[in-house]
Amino acid sequence: MNITLSLWDIGGQERFDFFKTDFFKGTAAVGLVFDLSRPDTFKNLDIYFDDIRERSGNIPIILVGNKSDLIKTIGKTIPRDNIIQKMNRNNLIDYIETSVLKNINVDKLFNTLALSALLDLRPRLGEIVDSDHFRFKVLLVGDASVGKSSLIKEFIEKHFDGNYKITVGLDLLVKDIYLPNEDLPEETFEIIKDAVSAEIKRIKEIRKLEKISKVMAEEIGNPEIISEEMRDDKQIVKIYKKRKRKKILYLFLILVSIFLIIGVMAILMA
Hints:
This protein is of the alpha/beta class. It has 10 helices and 7 strands. The N and C termini lie far apart (81 Å).
């Protein structure tokens, strides 16, 4: 299964709060990242969780404890029970501890995000490329300096850069990955089949509505009227059927009139 991941890294600084929630729209999966050496970054996760649920709904969220290599040096600063409680309370689908420095579980994180998005296939606009190729928007969110950018760059470039540069606003990178079909859960293929069928049906409906709108625009002679009057699909079809019935009625009346005229002329000529 081919997956194209659009990886969005949102700056964690407070001064970017006014715009960052808009980027949750259209997201397929989220990695909620905290620093295992900084308990405050763990406590702040609820703020991001609320934003995600408000903007993106019940999408898959993976909890990510980054900088696991520091545990040997400073010990565990966040009790395991607290992590489990947060997962259960917020219905998070998985917890993965990562280290960019040691390249621990970085690929696993993004492969899990891709698989989670696939199992939760809606689909959103542009997600289905074809039956074995999908495109997902994935976010990493969390406080500043928890390692979001480093995780993405390690995943894409396979290189750890010690010269850390803080993300200003937003970074966007793209990566193609391949998930072997034999490694996918059985239900994945049924989900894909249903989603593709629904997408094909949706595209057919869109094309049908576009055709109807075009015909009506030509009849009325003013496409702007169509766009203003027809805000939803049901309204388009309703107006189209009403106009079609009128055309049939007019045609019927014309035919009846012709027959009546022929009948009257026949009587007069007799």
